[in-house]
Amino acid sequence: MDNLVYEDRPQFGSYSFSGNFMKELAQTIQMLPVFLVLFALLFLVNTQIKQETIYQIFIYVFAIIIVLFYFGTWATKNQIFRDRIRVAVLLIFHFDIPFSNIESVREANLKALFGFHLNFIHPFSGYDVVQITRKHGLKVNIIPGNRTLFLENLNKAMAGWKKYYIEV
């Protein structure tokens, strides 16, 4: 094992419609470039191939992309190791953030979701957003099951990593 310090699973079930709407809106805004490219491709293909085939292909591709993107951004597990944070997605893929690349970790509100970030959240989660600001790359937004316990264990792990990193 890679010295697992803490593991939690995001909680499902939010009690406010407005919070779910804001999360959906934040994810949809990030998908706008993909939608624009798909519509541009549809327009180009529309002038070259028969209509019926175009619409069938477009509907299938559009549905697959939406389903993969929508479910592909749902974090299923957040893990803190001795040297990195791992966000597991769809039980198959994972996204690692090494401590050496973390600038700051803070509690964030729903306004922090807007902008171009990596959002590993789902609309049916709570409001406990944690924003990880990286030195190189986009900010990462996650929603752990227990934000205070997650941040407490993360601060302990980062302090231990800094101590070991400085001594070595």
Ordered list of secondary-structure elements with their pairings:
Elements: E1 4-8, H1 17-46, H2 51-72, E2 75-81, E3 84-89, E4 93-98, E5 102-108, E6 118-120, E7 129-134, E8 140-142, H3 147-167
Parallel strand pairs: 6-8
Antiparallel strand pairs: 1-2, 2-3, 3-4, 5-7, 7-8
Helix pairs in contact: 1-2
Care to give the gist of this entry?
This protein is of the alpha+beta class and 168 residues long.
Let me know the average pLDDT.
78
Tell me roughly what share of residues is in helical segments: 40-55%
Radius of gyration: 19 Å
Strand order of the largest sheet: 1-2-3-4
How does this model look, in words?
The chain has 3 helices and 8 strands. It is of the alpha+beta class and 168 residues long. The protein has one domain. The strands form 2 sheets. Strands 1-2-3-4 form a 4-stranded antiparallel beta sheet, with helices on one face. It has a 4-stranded mixed beta sheet with strand order 5-7-8-6, with no helix packed on it. Helix 1 runs antiparallel to helix 2. The two termini are 22 Å apart. About 3% of the residues have low confidence.
